[in-house]
Design brief:
Elements lengths: L3 H15 L5 E2 L4 E9 L7 H9 L1 H7 L5 E6 L7 E7 L1 H7 L35 E7 L5 H12 L2 E2 L4 H51 L2
Parallel strand pairs: 2-3
Antiparallel strand pairs: 1-6, 2-4, 4-5
Helix pairs in contact: 1-6, 2-5
Length: 215
């Protein structure tokens, strides 16, 4: 059985993935996303990097069927762009869910989706027939600005936590704070105990030294 601490960490990670910046449902006309930025954060690539780390995982969680490719390189002087590919209306209608549960959606299995690259091997492809592409220039932009532009240009539906999830989030935060207090108390107890043991050991050494000197 998983202990309460591990359960709390798992629940916190799941809630963090489900909600926060980037938690949104993309409309069916979005066919794929492509990010292009440098490996290192300097020279204007900090915002794109933060968007990639904080927002993209949530977008992927809520939109697993949409390929989201990240191409990175060592060229910090190069651009940082987010490309959004749109299907034509007819193709988007064919890809739309036919039931509330999403059955009937044209899903690209993860194993068949293109892979990302850290060696500049997966640059943004040109739009295919029946596609158009909208680009967001991310360089020197804050991640909040990038997300706002992305939501505006895609028309994505932002998701909010339910009352039950908000309660769970508050509970996990309370548990985290209590755990931090407990760790602090335990650390102080251990430090005090070690200090006391060191004092006792030093007193014994001094007593032994006095005893040997008086022989």
């Amino acid at each position: 059985m998983v202990n309460p601490g591990k359960r709390m960490n798992i629940l916190k990670a799941l809630l963090n993935l489900r909600h926060g910046p980037g938690a949104a449902i993309l409309p069916p006309e979005i066919s794929r996303l492509h990010m292009d930025f440098a490996l290192r954060w300097n020279d204007g690539h900090l915002g794109p990097r933060k968007f990639w780390k904080d927002c993209l995982p949530r977008l992927k969680f809520w939109n697993p069927a949409i390929p989201m490719i990240v191409n990175r390189s060592t060229n910090n002087a190069g651009p940082a762009t987010l490309s959004i590919y749109f299907r034509q209306a007819a193709a988007a209608a064919a890809a739309a869910p036919t039931t509330p549960a999403g059955k009937g959606t044209h899903i690209t299995p993860l194993a068949q989706q293109p892979h990302s690259s850290t060696t500049n091997e997966c640059t943004a492809p040109p739009p295919e027939e029946g596609e158009r592409v909208v680009t967001i220039e991310m360089k020197h932009q804050h991640s909040d600005y990038i997300l706002a532009e992305f939501l505006t240009k895609t028309g994505a539906t932002v998701l909010r936590p339910s009352p039950d999830e908000l309660n769970e989030m508050r509970q996990t935060e309370d548990l985290r704070e209590r755990a931090a207090i407990d760790r602090s108390i335990m650390k102080k107890y251990i430090d005090d105990k070690r200090r006391e043991e060191n004092l006792v050991a030093r007193a014994r050494e001094e007593a032994e030294a006095i005893r040997l000197a008086n022989q």
